[in-house]
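About this split. The held-out portion is used to measure sequence recovery: a designer receives only the structure tokens and must propose an amino acid at every position. Recovery is the fraction of positions where the proposal matches the reference. Here is one held-out target exactly as it appears in the evaluation file.
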């Protein structure tokens, strides 16, 4: 029997365990987490990205989503775009219960504790974990880390050496958000999701943020103020809270009470793992850079790719190196580098510029191959497909093309300098 550890009990970790048991025989999963509470954050995804995936074979679509809406985007210039894409708001209670009910019928073992140390002994991984005040060991064939933004592992060589990445131009970007889940006894008027409202703020702050509105049902709505991406290490929650209250005021929302508050930050671009820096586990979800860097969406991305990396485990006879090399192939490295340039681009724009850029992005790119490739990092595309997908950018204003070209040139120079330095 092959034994697998999954560190973390968020949706990506639990869905991976769910899929493994549905797909493969003769396995045992240990799931180690600080707690096994129901998912707290609001998860949404574009339905067309999971339409032909495995998820609907095991989950009832009518129960998996609290609501399925269309999408509206508002820009600084008072223009709006309505997208035809269907947008689903995940029913956390149904998703969590369905996964746990199924895993209860398997030999999966849930361990409430924290990982302290991992080393490799022969062909097995030795995991030392702390449960209450006791230390215990288990030996397994493969390890997943699905810890989101949390750092729960302290073992040698597991965490990436960020200093080396910083020398090569690496910058960590984050998305910050502050949201209130509002309940209206007499109902609200939001019939669709506002994915981005870039209308400017009447305050003294230079922080760039948009409003995100998600109607769960006829009475409940999440209104959230979000910083799309920033490399600053400053915490913005006080600014976002003030702006959120102003958004609610501008929407003329009254007679509601707050059900819940969501305050969080998401790392948009963890350094992608390789065999030298992370030779003990395969990282999935946010901590593994399995996220759309330019938007912060992770759940749909991982639902799409769970079958792929699970198949690599069996195909590679539980070799960690094999899974890393197969999943993080050259094309995904290229896409990751392009998305990193996109983060740099947005971080250096004003709010008006981001709004205008998004206007052209959603107008020209959304329904092209480019959006699909960059969003899901599909495993069956090649270099020429990625480069060909950028054709639609010729319709962007010259000022944006100039910014993109400048970033590309700087990136090439940095990589050449880094290569030259390392070689000589």
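Reference sequence for scoring:
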């Amino acid at each position: 029997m092959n034994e697998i550890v999954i560190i973390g009990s968020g949706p990506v970790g639990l869905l991976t365990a769910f899929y493994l048991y549905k797909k493969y025989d003769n396995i045992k999963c240990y799931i180690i987490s600080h707690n096994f509470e129901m998912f707290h954050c609001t998860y949404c995804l574009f339905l067309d990205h999971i339409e032909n995936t495995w998820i609907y074979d095991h989950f009832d679509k009518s129960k998996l989503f609290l609501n399925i809406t269309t999408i509206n985007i508002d820009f600084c210039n008072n223009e709006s775009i309505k997208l035809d894409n269907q947008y689903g708001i995940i029913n956390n209670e149904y998703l969590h219960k369905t996964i746990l009910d199924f895993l209860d019928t398997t030999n999966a073992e849930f361990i409430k504790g924290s990982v302290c140390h991992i080393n490799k002994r022969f062909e097995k991984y030795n995991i030392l974990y702390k449960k209450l005040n006791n230390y215990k060991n288990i030996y397994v064939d493969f390890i997943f880390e699905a810890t989101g933004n949390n750092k729960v592992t302290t073992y040698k060589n597991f965490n990436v050496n960020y200093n080396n990445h910083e020398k090569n131009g690496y910058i960590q970007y984050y998305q910050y958000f502050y949201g209130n889940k509002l309940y209206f006894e007499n109902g609200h008027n939001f019939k669709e999701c506002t994915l981005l409202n870039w209308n400017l703020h009447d305050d003294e702050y230079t922080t760039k943020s948009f409003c995100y509105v998600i109607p769960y049902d006829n009475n409940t709505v999440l209104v959230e103020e979000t910083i799309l991406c920033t490399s600053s290490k400053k915490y913005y929650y006080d600014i976002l809270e003030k702006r959120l209250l102003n958004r609610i005021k501008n929407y003329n929302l009254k007679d509601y009470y707050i059900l819940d508050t969501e305050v969080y930050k998401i790392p948009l671009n963890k350094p992608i793992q390789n065999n030298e820096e992370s030779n003990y586990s395969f990282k999935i979800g946010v901590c593994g850079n399995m996220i759309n860097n330019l938007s912060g969406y992770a759940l749909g991305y991982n639902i799409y790719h769970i079958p792929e990396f699970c198949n690599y485990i069996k195909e590679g006879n539980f070799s960690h190196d094999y899974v890393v090399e197969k999943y993080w192939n050259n094309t995904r490295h290229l896409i990751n580098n392009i998305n990193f340039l996109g983060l740099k681009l947005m971080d250096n724009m004003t709010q008006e510029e981001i709004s205008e850029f998004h206007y052209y992005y959603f107008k020209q790119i959304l329904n092209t191959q480019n959006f699909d490739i960059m969003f899901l990092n599909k495993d069956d595309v090649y270099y020429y497909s990625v480069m060909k997908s950028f054709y639609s950018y010729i319709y962007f204003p010259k000022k944006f093309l100039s910014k993109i070209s400048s970033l590309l040139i700087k990136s090439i120079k940095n990589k050449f300098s880094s290569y030259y330095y390392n070689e000589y």
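Annotator remark: Confidence is low (pLDDT under 50) at residues 154-167, 418-424.
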